[in-house]
């Protein structure tokens, strides 16, 4: 067996690729075949190095790598260029670049990284004390890359159309042949399109009202923080008042039920136009205002969103679309379905199943609007750009597929017994408690890690200065909020009974969505927190479902 100089777990100095700089690294493993060591830098970057690129630590350097921030070694080798000098002068920081380095044996990729390094513009220490660089354009594309996002962009609108057509069938089997496509005039009506535009602009008007507190978002790459007005709950109250007044004046909400398909298509058309506008708008955006998820490829960026926070003055388009027209629209659609059920089934009162679906989903929307500030730290706001994915998701997918249970009940009555209803209510409450407590615990911890109310919780420090919760809800599974969300999703579908799979579409889709989202978040956390994240994964092995996954 060939001899090796360094042992696993040993803390040594590893050369930073393309430079003569050495940083503290931990030896993770050694490959006898290639004679390469896999090492881990303090920012979590894993890399394969040759033995000649590794040196013993200076003097009596630390022997245990604990993931805590250490000073960058400044005396390793003379600095060769200006950028290296800037990096080393940021004494208390370590390199937090978002690009990830690939194994040395992947020569082509290494070259790409080198050019990426050259493109990075150093900006100096941010108010957070970390050393920030301009947003790099990603090369590792998510969602199956260009073919994947092209398929999604064509497939999702078709899927919405299919689901709505199926749901209107007498026997809406999820897997049966789709009904014939209606004639164009049945799919498109200009007045419905006008109604949709009116809805969107009325919501925009509510967003502009100077009520509700103004808060700051998370720091951007240049250290700035954008301001956001939180008045989503007021928008819901005003919308309820407007809808109530409309009903009082005898305006027939049933029109929305009879034109549901046209409404969904109008929303789809609008989301496509909005996505085109967003892409064109982003072409003028400076590089450091682009989303970290953008790639430089036009198709991919059209999908994922090129610009991180597109704004018209103070009007934040992404923040507005995330919770207002779609989420409040979902509640209104549910109400329309409740009234349609009474009319079509000639009932004097809505069914218990319909009441539960409406109340459960209203609670979810009220909760989201009540906790509107929490949106500012989600992946959607801080990572993804605003493109087709979020525009279509927020404006079409959420209101028109999340209301599928209520739509289903209009033509497929299901009489729910009170004992069964009680079990479903208990399930919903259980899911809600997990969802809310987990989200609130993390939000409170992120706001103030030394909050005395959280003093009993165990944490792991990470090299970014932030800590991770490893007990309480976040010690139960790694995404307890997703678990709660999924339990609630099941409780929304159960009132529809078991005659068809269609009302469970949301549960199936949402499970897939959250598993995918969890994997994306996991990937990002691994990059952000490196070894500390691995320690967390060891302590809390299950991702969403205890003892299963
Ligand atoms: P999360 O709210 O779960 O946030 C993930 C982030 O939390 C991580 O990136 C990390 O960020 C931080 N974090 C992770 N683990 C820990 C820990 N142990 N201790 C402290 N911080 C930790 O992500 P989402 O934005 O995906 O979800 C927000 C909510 O929205 C969820 O409740 C989800 O269920 C819901 N949702 C609903 C959807 C729907 O369609 N109904 C769709 C998507 C989400 P950092 O360390 O940087 O703070």
Describe what you observe in this structure.
With 549 residues, the chain is α+β, with helices and mostly antiparallel strands. Helix content is 49%, strand content 9%. The protein is built from 19 helices and 13 strands. The strands form 5 sheets. Strands 4-3-2-1-5 form a 5-stranded antiparallel beta sheet, with no helix packed on it. A two-stranded antiparallel ribbon has the order 6-7. Strand 3 and strand 4 form a beta hairpin. Helix 3 packs parallel to helix 14, helix 8 packs antiparallel against helix 14 and helix 11 (325-344) packs parallel to helix 14 (388-401). It is globular. It starts with 10 loop residues before the first strand and ends in a 10-residue tail after the last helix. Bound molecules: NADPH dihydro-nicotinamide-adenine-dinucleotide phosphate. Residues 378-379, 435, 439, 442, 445-446, 466, 468-469, 474, 479, 481-482, 485, 517, 521, 524-525 line the site of NADPH dihydro-nicotinamide-adenine-dinucleotide phosphate.
DSSP, total strands: 13
Number of helices: 19
Helix percent reads: 40-55%
Shape: globular
Q: Compute the separation of the termini in Å.
A: 39 Å
Order of strands side by side in the largest beta sheet? 4-3-2-1-5
Mean pLDDT: 82
Instruction: Give start-end ranges of low-pLDDT stretches.
Output: 59-136
Strand content: 5-15%
Largest sheet: 5 strands, antiparallel
Q: Name every ligand kind in the structure.
A: NADPH dihydro-nicotinamide-adenine-dinucleotide phosphate
Structural class: alpha+beta
Rg value: 26 Å
């Amino acid at each position: 067996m060939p001899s090796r100089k360094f042992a696993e777990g040993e803390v040594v100095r590893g050369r930073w690729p393309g430079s003569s700089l050495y940083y503290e690294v931990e030896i993770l493993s050694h490959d006898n075949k290639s004679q390469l060591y896999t090492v881990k830098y303090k920012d979590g970057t894993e890399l394969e190095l040759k033995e000649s690129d590794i040196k013993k630590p200076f003097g009596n350097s630390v022997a245990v790598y604990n993931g805590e921030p250490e000073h960058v070694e400044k005396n390793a080798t003379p600095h060769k260029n200006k950028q290296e000098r800037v990096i080393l002068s940021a004494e208390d920081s370590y390199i937090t670049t978002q690009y990830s380095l690939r194994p040395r044996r992947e020569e082509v990729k290494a070259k790409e990284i080198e050019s990426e390094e050259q493109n990075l513009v150093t900006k100096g220490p941010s108010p957070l004390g970390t050393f920030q660089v301009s947003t790099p354009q990603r090369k590792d594309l998510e969602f199956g890359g260009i073919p994947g996002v092209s398929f999604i962009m064509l497939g999702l609108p078709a899927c919405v159309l299919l689901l709505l057509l199926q749901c209107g069938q007498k026997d809406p089997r999820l897997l049966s042949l789709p009904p014939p496509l209606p004639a164009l005039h049945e799919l498109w009506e200009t007045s419905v399109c006008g109604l949709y535009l009116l809805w969107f602009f009325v919501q925009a008007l509510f967003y502009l009202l100077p009520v509700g507190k103004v808060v700051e978002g998370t720091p951007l790459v240049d250290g700035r923080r954008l301001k956001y007005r939180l008045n989503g709950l007021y928008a819901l109250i005003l919308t309820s008042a407007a809808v109530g007044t409309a009903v009082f004046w005898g305006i027939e909400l049933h029109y929305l039920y009879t034109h549901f398909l046209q409404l969904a298509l109008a929303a789809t058309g609008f989301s496509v136009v909005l996505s085109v506008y967003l892409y064109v708008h982003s072409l003028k955006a400076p590089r450091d205002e682009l989303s970290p998820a953008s790639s430089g490829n036009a198709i991919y960026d059209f999908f994922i969103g090129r610009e991180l926070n597109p704004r018209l003055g103070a009007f934040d388009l992404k923040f507005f679309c995330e919770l207002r027209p779609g989420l409040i629209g979902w509640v209104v659609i549910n109400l329309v379905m409740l009234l349609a059920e009474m009319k079509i089934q000639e009932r004097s009162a809505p069914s218990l199943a319909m009441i539960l679906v409406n109340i459960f989903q209203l609670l979810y929307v009220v909760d989201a609007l009540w906790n509107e500030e929490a949106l500012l730290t989600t992946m959607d706001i801080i990572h993804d750009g605003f493109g087709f994915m979020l525009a279509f998701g927020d404006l079409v997918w959420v209101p028109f597929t999340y209301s599928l249970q209520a739509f289903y009940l209009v033509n497929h009555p299901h009489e729910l017994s009170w004992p069964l209803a009680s079990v479903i209510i208990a399930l919903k409450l259980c899911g809600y408690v997990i969802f809310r407590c987990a989200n609130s615990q993390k939000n409170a911890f992120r706001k103030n890690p030394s909050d005395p109310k959280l003093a009993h919780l165990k944490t792991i420090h990470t090299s970014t200065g932030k800590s991770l919760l490893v007990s309480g809800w976040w010690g139960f599974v790694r995404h307890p909020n997703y678990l709660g969300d999924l339990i609630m999703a099941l409780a929304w579908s159960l009132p529809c009974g078991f005659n068809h799979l269609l009302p469970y579409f949301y549960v199936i889709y949402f499970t897939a969505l959250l598993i995918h989202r969890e994997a994306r978040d996991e990937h990002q956390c691994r990059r952000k927190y490196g070894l500390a994240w691995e320690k967390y994964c060891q302590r809390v092995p299950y991702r969403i479902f205890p003892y299963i996954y």
